[in-house]
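Table S5 (text form). Sequence records supplied for joint modeling of the two-component complex.
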Amino acid sequence: MKLWLAVLIACAGCAVLKLAGFVVPSRLLESSVARRILDALPVTLLSALIAVSVFATGNHLTLDSRAAGLAVALILVAIRAPFLVVVVAACATAAGAHAL
Amino acid sequence: MSDASRRTAERRIRNRALTIGVSITPFGLSFGAVSVEAHLSLIQVCLLSLVLFSGASQFALVSIIGAGGSYLSAVGTALLLGVRNGLYAARINALLRPTGWRRFVMAEFTIDETTAMAVSESRSGHPARAFWYTALSVYVLWNVSTVVGALVGNALGSPATTGLDVAGPAAFIALLAPRLTTARMRLVALGSGAIALVTVPFVPIGAPILIGGLTAVALLLVVDR
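The corresponding structure-token record, covering 325 residues in total, follows.
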């Protein structure tokens, strides 16, 4: 019963969070400050997400095979490799480093 | 816009959306398997992927329950990880301007992947197409892989073995690249990642991403004044 409650509250809460950004009055989104914040937010949030998903496990900082995959991705993006090549090469590198 | 360039964009978006969808399937398998081990019923597992639909929140919820943590901390962590979807939603709202019931549908699909794709295609003039193709691809493959994982366990092994634990980060870097052409934005991105990492040992899971992302934006505004 408690498990059901946890599942349902998590579902409802996350839906409300997603919806929150869509019910912001549009005039609040018009100002130049709001526009600059909204423009930069996905970039900074995704950058933080990348850092945490590569260099952290739970509450610990880690340096493992994922870092090798990230390095390869950065190099390939810098030389403008195609999207699929970036993703596949990063995974192959991380898998190789993990197997070593 | 010419037909040729529209077709090129369409093909690029379709291929990228499919690549992202395929690369999340090991996580779906693993999520389904972990959930069953945490004693969730098949209906509960499927409900999470169908309704909650946000990988990080779902994993946090079932991992903490599975590890014997309290329901309160499990739900709290899931919600904390869900906050960034609300911030993405404000961006998607400003970019795509959905009205009426469309906002509710779009909200359900506002996650890391769809936001990264929509923002990445905002200058090509196809952010809506990028959003919906990615939503379709990720939603279908995430739910199918969840069910398979719950029924047969994680046949592929852990995402670390297959290297797919870096598929997300690699895809996001490639999608962010067009936005990271100036030294200023690169610095902001690096700063955001660094701030997030510094806070990792000290704050609840999920908080570092918000702290890094919001602090970096605040710094950008201060520097730009």
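Note: Chain B has eleven helices and no strands.
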